[in-house]
Design goal:
By secondary structure, the chain is α+β, with helices and mostly antiparallel strands. 47% of the residues lie in helices and 14% in strands. The protein folds into 2 domains: 225 residues, no CATH class; 113 residues, no CATH class. The chain is built from 12 helices and 10 strands.
């Protein structure tokens, strides 16, 4: 991230990132999924944003210098409206929040907020007035997360969030049917096999392995799923390649997921990262939602909740939290809406250039 040097054009940027990714993964690179990723990103500007976090890391501080200002924090790095889901904590409680830390890094705190609101605007094609409204909701939620950091535990309170993310009976049936019907994979690399065996546990019987296609930004990385029956019902675990954050391609992979177990989280006991692999439990409720399906009032409330969770993540370091709170108080509220307008335009220009260049 260098605010003083102009970023490369979009075609050079893609070539550089994918060459780095191929170097990291070697023979494990899934070329078919990388081609599918390009199809998804060409089809929709929101999917382009989701699939090109590295491009945000290259362009944001240059296109909008105010995003590089202020204290840094251990951040999500790839904050967007599709990066939230539900899990069970060690007490079996239902918890909602950020559930993907592939691109976590220590960066200026404003980056997460601006990327979240930009993603919401692009997901819906919102006009300036709507962008300003959700920016206000995000700032309110973020400030609340800094002041009173806590996880979103959906047991007694927050029923509206539970209702948004809980799967219906039909969705549950489809979820397990899709895993059962996946083509069997006979050639699971040994490191992934060991990781999945450890995640499933020695007491479980026969396990079926398959590949899985999911997400946008991580397409091209190998994902393997272990599916088994345990005590009368199905269980599933996924092992996915973990690369260094796109914010620091020279770093080692793995530390990003320290945020998942940081202060003020209610961590998922089935989530483990190490040796270049992240393993998680798969379940029907761990799903994305469509912002377009909800009324403005619900969308505003949801963006505020997302920003509050980001605030709680940033608050894990007491010194950073105090510095961020002071910076927010000293610099008003207009910066976020202004930054989002710039980044919406920047992302759209990149997307149009990408559509013209990548076939």
């Amino acid at each position: 991230m260098n605010a003083t040097l102009p970023p490369p054009d979009i075609t050079q940027s893609i070539a550089s990132f994918e060459a780095w990714m191929a170097d990291q993964l070697g023979v494990l690179l899934v070329a078919d999924e990388l081609r599918f990723k390009h199809e998804q990103m060409r089809a929709d500007v929101f999917l382009f944003l989701r699939g090109s976090c590295w491009r945000w890391a290259e362009t944001a501080a240059f296109a909008c210098p105010t995003l590089g200002l202020g204290p840094v924090a251990a951040s999500v790095g790839d904050a967007h409206v599709g990066n939230f889901g539900v899990w069970r904590d060690g007490e079996g409680r239902l918890v909602w929040g950020v559930n993907d830390f592939d691109e976590a890094a220590t960066i200026p705190y404003r980056m997460d907020l601006a990327r979240l609101v930009t993603s919401a605007a692009l997901a819906r094609g919102d006009e300036d007035a709507d962008q300003a409204d959700i920016a206000e909701a995000a700032l309110d939620g973020y400030a609340a997360g800094l002041a009173d950091p806590r996880p979103w535990v959906l047991e007694q309170d927050h029923g509206w969030l539970r209702d948004l993310f809980s799967s219906s009976d039909k969705q549950r049936i489809r979820f397990w049917a899709k895993l059962r019907d996946a083509a069997p994979e006979q050639h699971v690399p040994s490191a992934y096999h060991r990781a999945l065996d450890a995640a499933v546990g020695p007491s479980v019987g026969a396990t079926a392995f398959s590949r899985r296609r999911a997400g946008v930004g991580s397409l091209g990385r190998p994902r393997f799923v272990a599916l088994a029956d345990d005590v009368g019902g199905p269980i599933a675990r996924e092992a996915k390649a973990l690369l260094p954050s796109c914010w620091d391609r020279g770093a080692a992979a793995g530390p990003q997921y320290a945020l998942a177990i940081s202060r003020y989280r209610a961590p998922d006991p089935f989530l483990h990262a190490g040796d270049g692999i992240v393993v998680r439990r798969l379940a029907p409720n761990s799903r994305k939602i469509d912002l377009g399906a909800h009324k403005r009032r619900v969308r505003r409330r949801l963006i505020g909740a997302m920003a509050r969770d980001i605030g709680a993540i940033h608050a894990a370091d007491a010194a950073s939290c105090a510095a961020i709170s002071a910076h927010l108080a000293d610099h008003g509220r207009q910066w976020l809406a202004q930054a989002v307008r710039i980044m919406v335009d920047t992302t759209r220009r990149d997307w149009l250039g990408y559509r013209a260049a990548v076939r």
